[in-house]
């Protein structure tokens, strides 16, 4: 497998898994009679996927040069996602004085899915010989 095939494998897996999870998320909201696209859910999925692509691409490009620092860079990427949450989502979620569970879940599900895929692929990348 060429080195860039691995990167595109991450992109494909991320896109596919996030689309599937998004579909299940919409289905659950529908079955519960909740607004399907409320709570900034679409923005949360898009932002988390975009940031996962940027962060993992950065890790991939510097995997050899900064191999010993990849863990710290990975943690920095996770912190970056929280910064985006507190800048763009938190003020909207807290605008009524409280954050509802559905608001939190709408951001946390795509965050968790992207984080899990980033973690799996980063570990696989670090364990590979190239």
Automatic annotation (TrEMBL):
<dbReference type="Pfam" id="PF19665">
    <property type="entry name" value="DUF6168"/>
</dbReference>
<protein>
    <submittedName>
        <fullName>Uncharacterized protein</fullName>
    </submittedName>
</protein>
<feature type="transmembrane region" description="Helical">
    <location>
        <begin position="44"/>
        <end position="64"/>
    </location>
</feature>
<keyword id="KW-0472">Membrane</keyword>
<keyword id="KW-0812">Transmembrane</keyword>
<dbReference type="InterPro" id="IPR046166">
    <property type="entry name" value="DUF6168"/>
</dbReference>
<keyword id="KW-1133">Transmembrane helix</keyword>
<feature type="transmembrane region" description="Helical">
    <location>
        <begin position="7"/>
        <end position="32"/>
    </location>
</feature>
<feature type="transmembrane region" description="Helical">
    <location>
        <begin position="71"/>
        <end position="92"/>
    </location>
</feature>
<feature type="transmembrane region" description="Helical">
    <location>
        <begin position="104"/>
        <end position="123"/>
    </location>
</feature>
